[in-house]
Every structure is written in structure tokens, then in C-alpha cells.
Design goal:
The complex is a heterodimer of chains A (95) and B (484). The longest helix of chain A is centred in the N-terminal third of the chain and has 16 residues, at 24-39. Chain A has a domain at 5-43. Chain A has helices at 5-14, 24-39, 73-77; strands at 83-84, 87-88. Chain A is mainly alpha-helical and 95 residues long. Chain B has a domain at 6-252 and 472-483: Amidase signature (AS) domain (Amidase signature (AS) enzymes, Alpha-Beta Complex), CATH 3.90.1300.10. Helices cover 38% and strands 13% of the residues of chain B. Chain B contains 15 helices and eleven strands. Chain B has helices spanning 6-15, 20-38, 46-62, 103-110, 153-160, 177-183, 217-227, 271-286, 302-317, 336-347, 350-363, 368-389, 415-419, 426-431, 459-472; strands at residues 41-44, 72-76, 114-119, 166-171, 186-189, 209-214, 257-261, 290-294, 395-399, 435-443, 446-453. Chain B has an eleven-stranded mixed beta sheet, sandwiched between helices. The longest helix of chain B has 22 residues, at 368-389. The chains are: A mainly alpha (95), B alpha/beta (484).
Chain lengths: 95, 484
């Protein structure tokens, strides 16, 4: 399986990940090597095998439905790059 | 004092022959003297450490101290701290100070431990050499042109160079055990869910597990005791009872069945590593254990399955770094897409980008079944291999890594060659089992690690076997010459 610089550009867009133009070619090569590595999975017979999502599949617990969080807006917004009146600021989204 | 193990220091603190203030001062001086050569600490809070030490000494006088009260520790910079920055080795989190603390950090402080600082690591825990840190690589204390392993390379180097009594680490595919092996220390990845992941920055949530790194298994038992336990803030944290991890340390190994997977002793395993591990197995046999050849037939599929599952979960987890709520934000974003794309493009380093991309690809429409679902099915097969093996043996033993620490730069241009470092370690993460690495000698002057793996929730068994081994060997006592 081999990926092209165009493929990398498409995947990078899906991940909203900025990639320099001159990094597309080497990334395509690296990712193709990674796909070659995982390609051997395709030859394994997994007919009827349940996918294992998690080692804790059987033990996940639900907690009681009670309020556990207090209002910590100020503390939680302290690391934000830009806030105003308790909101996170981003460039205009709606024209 | 730094040549003593954590357990020995704890005994001296308990008897009053040593004060926490003196111990902390001693380590602060050593850090001052040696950290530049290693780049192992990213942040040190000397004043807070001195205060905590003096509070610990006061607490001792009042008689309500625990075994770890006043013992200094370094935290991997993946654990959120509210009094020091938490960078996760990334430019994305440069200067980030968390509004809350990780459960592990809280637990260790509740146990009375003194935090010295934060340990360098591969960016977002992705790497096996510590060369992926935005803040520069960490040197291996045994040979400073060698890598310390990764991703908990700073933690391992700190313990090996005796710049703290212990350190915390995290292990997603071997990130505690591989650096422990490369640096000649002991580290344990507990059973998945044994230690809370709350406040531990997520890489691959179904694989990530925090654990202790120290000189000995006895030290690790004390540390894990404080670290482990149910936490409602992490829904995957196990409600299983936490046993007394030190209670069985000295248990007799007579009749213990140790499985030796033939797949681990195959092509690619360094001769020196194989020799040291075989010698260690002979020592365990001398202690009464019975060695039994076993097979883990799907061992060869672990790396491929891991390199789908881990990047897929990472690409999902790392979507939270969007330049809006915390972390790096680009200058003058034109619109919201530009804000996301440039903030992430500038904030993440090359290996993190590779993994986000491969993960996004594996999860994208049309490829999900072929990659992610297939990898999860293979994960089940790998897990079944262990269930089958543990029907016949109590513990599985082998090398932690295929080679000893390699030279800095040797594999940094070849991601896949780097991934093969995890050849023997990822299976424990895929199956959620506890596994430990303990030093078992040297090959050409570099430490070799013996890996032990046990069924779920049997950390005590691992610590027991390693402690018995360390009772009749002294590899864990060796200190790199430049840091003696």
C-alpha cells in the first residue's frame, strides 16, 4: 500500500493538521512504510473473532448520577489563549 | 545517601537517622551538578521541594508518617501538576500550567512524597529514544552518546543517575519497561486500570497505564501501593481490591512455573541480551523455579496491531489540541480552519504528526474495517495467546528489548526501525497485563533488562520474582561511573 503526497494532504485536512509542502513527500514515504508494516494483519484469519476494544471490556462501571463538579470556569479558562466574559475567543465563524 | 535504595532511605527516615530536608537538599545538589549532562529534568521546583521536605520532617515528629513520607520523587511531564508546567515534551504545551493535578501526583503527595521536578519525555509519549522531545534529547547515564529509551526516558535517566529516589512513568507500548531496561533500573507497568489515568495526558486510552520506576522491585512495591486504587474520575480505573504489594516479596519461588516464549529468542535478538537473560533465567531456576518453553503464536502480529490501535486512539485523543481552550495558538488566524490547522501544525513535532495522520487514515471512511477493526480482532488473538499460556505457567519471562541502548541518531530517520524496540513489550499493553523490567547484567557496558509478565492483577507475583532475583544478584546496585 502506497500513499501519495496528495493522499497526505487529504488526510492532513481531515485531521486539521498543517503540513509544510516540502514535508508531504517524505511523509508519504514514511506512512507508506508504516502501512507496509501493518499490511501483514490482512493475511490473518479473524473470522468470528470479536474485536477487543479494551482490556477492561467486562469491568466498566457506571458511577452514581450525582453532581461531582463545581463551577471552576475561571481556573479552567486560565490556560486558554484568548477569552472574554467567560467565553473562548475564536475567529468569526458566522458571517 | 543516593547509593541507598528507596526502601533503605525510607527505613533511615523512619528511624530518624536521616531527615527529608537533608535528603532533598542532597538530590537538589546532584541535579544542579548532573542534569546538564543528561537533560533529564525539564522543571525543578526547589523551593516547593524544600518546603515539602520540612513539612514531612515535622509530620514524622508527630508520629503519623507513612513509609514514603519525605521521600523525593520526579514525575514524568505527562502528569498534570498545578504548581509546575506540564509540557508532555511538546511545543503544543510549552508553559502550560494545568488547572488540576493528576491522580498519581495527588496520591504520591498524599503518601508524603516530595516532588523534585518534572521529567523529560518523548513528545506525547510517542517514541522509544527520547529524541522526540521538543526540549531536546535525554542522554543515557551509562554512555551519554546513547539514548535512554522512551518514552519515559527522563524518568529512567533520573533514577539511573540517582537524581531522585524514584520517578513515575507511563507505558503505552513499553514506555516504562524499555527505558528501565536501557538504563539499568526496575520499572513496572501495572495491570490496565490499576492506576488512575486522571490527569495523565492521554496518548492511546485503551493501552496507557502509569507506574513506578525505581532501583528495585521492593521500591516499586512501596510506590505502587501509594499509586494504585480505584478512582471514579477515570471510568476505566479498576475497582479490584489493591493487595499489599510488599507482603509476598520474599515468597519462595520453589515450584513456580516460568514460561519462556520461543518467539522471543529468535532472529533480531542481540546475542549479549540473550546471554544475560538466559543467565537470569538460570538464577531463577536456582531459586527453585521451573522453566517451561511456551509459544505465543501471534507474537509477530503485536507490532502491526499496535501501530494501528495506538495511532488511531492518539489521533482521536489529540484532536483536543485545537488552539482554543489551552495549548499553542498560531498568530493571526484568518478563520477557524486556519486556527486549527496552523496551531496544530506548529505545535506538534514530526513523530506526533506521523501518528495522527496514520491514525486518521486508519479510522477514515472505507478503511475502518480493514485497519482498526482488524487490529482489534488481532488484539483479541494476542490476548488469547496469554490466556492459553497462563493455563500452564505462572509467569512469562524473556528479554525486555531486542538490543541494548542504541546511539543517539541511529534510528531517528527510520520510524519503523524505531518501532521494533517495542517488539517484546507491546503485547502486555494490548492484553492489559502487568509486566516488569529488572536489570540483569550488561552487554558491552550497557544494561540489559529481564521482562516478567503475569496474569491480570498479579503485580505481587512479578514483584516477588524480581525481588528474589535481586536478593541474589546486584545488577540493580550498579551506578554509572560518572554519577557515582
Amino acid at each position: 500500500m502506497s500513499l501519495t503526497p496528495d493522499d497526505i494532504e487529504k488526510i492532513a485536512h481531515l485531521a486539521r493538521l498543517g503540513i509544510d509542502k516540502d514535508a508531504l513527500e517524505p511523509l508519504a514515504a514514511d506512512l507508506s512504510t508504516m502501512l507496509d508494516l501493518v499490511e501483514q494483519l490482512q493475511a490473518v484469519d479473524t473470522e468470528g473473532v470479536e474485536p477487543m476494544a479494551h482490556p477492561a471490556n467486562a469491568t466498566l462501571l457506571l458511577r452514581d448520577d450525582v453532581v461531582t463538579e463545581s463551577d471552576q470556569r475561571e481556573a479552567l479558562q486560565a490556560p486558554a489563549p484568548a477569552t472574554q466574559d467567560g467565553y473562548f475567543l475564536v475567529p468569526r465563524v458566522i458571517e | 545517601m543516593h547509593d541507598k535504595t528507596l526502601a533503605e532511605q525510607a527505613a533511615l527516615l523512619a528511624s530518624g537517622d536521616l531527615s527529608s530536608s537533608d535528603l532533598v537538599e542532597h538530590y537538589l545538589q546532584r541535579i544542579e551538578q548532573h542534569n546538564e549532562a543528561l537533560n533529564a529534568y525539564l522543571a525543578i521546583d526547589a523551593d516547593a521541594a524544600r518546603q515539602a521536605a520540612s513539612a514531612a520532617d515535622e509530620q514524622r515528629k508527630t508520629g503519623n508518617a507513612g513509609p514514603l513520607t519525605g521521600v523525593p520523587i520526579a514525575h514524568k511531564d505527562i502528569f498534570c501538576t498545578s504548581s509546575m508546567p506540564t509540557t508532555c515534551g511538546s511545543r503544543m504545551l510549552q508553559n502550560f500550567v494545568s488547572p488540576y493535578e493528576a491522580a498519581v501526583v495527588q496520591n504520591m503527595r498524599t503518601a508524603g512524597m516530595v516532588t523534585l521536578g518534572k521529567a523529560n519525555m518523548d513528545e506525547f509519549a510517542m517514541g522509544s529514544s527520547n529524541e522526540n522531545s521538543f526540549y531536546g534529547p535525554v542522554a543515557n547515564p551509562w554512555q551519554t552518546d546513547r539514548v535512554p529509551g522512551g518514552s519515559s526516558g527522563g524518568s529512567a535517566a533520573i533514577v539511573a543517575a540517582r537524581l531522585a529516589s524514584a520517578a513515575t512513568g507511563t507505558d503505552t507500548g513499553g514506555s516504562i519497561r524499555q527505558p528501565a531496561a536501557f538504563c539499568g533500573i526496575t520499572g513496572i507497568k501495572p495491570t490496565y486500570g490499576r492506576v488512575s489515568r486522571y490527569g495523565m495526558i492521554a496518548f492511546a486510552s485503551s493501552l496507557d497505564q502509569g507506574g513506578p520506576m525505581a532501583q528495585t522491585a521492593e521500591d516499586c512495591a512501596l510506590l505502587l501501593q501509594a499509586m494504585a486504587g480505584h478512582d471514579l474520575r477515570d471510568s476505566t480505573c479498576s475497582p479490584a481490591a489493591v493487595p499489599d504489594f510488599s507482603a509476598e516479596l520474599n515468597a519462595d519461588l520453589k515450584g513456580l512455573r516460568i514460561g519462556v516464549p520461543q518467539e522471543y529468542f529468535a532472529e533480531g535478538l542481540d546475542d549479549g541480551v540473550a546471554a544475560r537473560v538466559n543467565e537470569a533465567l538460570a538464577v531463577l531456576e536456582g531459586e527453585g523455579a521451573i522453566l517451561k518453553p511456551i509459544s505465543l503464536p501471534n507474537q509477530g502480529l503485536c507490532i502491526p496491531a499496535y501501530y494501528i490501535i495506538a495511532p488511531a486512539e492518539a489521533s482521536s485523543n489529540l484532536s483536543r489540541f485545537d488552539g482554543v481552550r489551552f495549548g499553542h495558538r498560531c498568530e493571526n488566524p484568518q478563520d477557524i480552519d486556519d486556527l486549527y490547522t496552523r496551531s496544530r501544525g506548529e505545535g506538534f513535532g514530526p513523530e506526533v504528526k506521523r501518528r495522527i495522520l496514520i491514525g486518521a487514515y486508519a479510522l477514515s471512511a472505507g478503511y475502518y474495517d480493514a485497519y482498526y477493526k482488524k487490529a482489534q480482532q488481532v488484539r483479541q488473538l494476542v490476548s488469547d495467546d496469554f490466556s492459553n499460556a497462563f493455563a500452564e505457567v505462572d509467569v512469562i519471562a524473556g528479554p525486555t528489548t531486542p538490543t541494548t541502548a542504541f546511539a543517539r541518531g541511529a534510528k531517528s530517520d527510520d520510524p519503523v526501525a524505531m518501532y521494533l524496540n517495542d517488539l517484546f513489550t507491546v503485547s502486555a499493553n494490548l492484553s492489559g497485563l502487568p509486566a516488569l523490567s529488572a536489570p540483569c547484567g550488561f552487554a558491552e557496558g550497557l544494561p540489559v533488562g529481564l521482562q516478567l509478565c503475569a496474569p491480570a492483577n498479579q503485580e505481587s507475583r512479578l514483584l516477588n520474582v524480581a525481588h528474589r532475583y535481586q536478593s541474589v544478584t546486584d545488577w540493580h546496585r550498579q551506578i554509572p561511573a560518572n554519577f557515582a
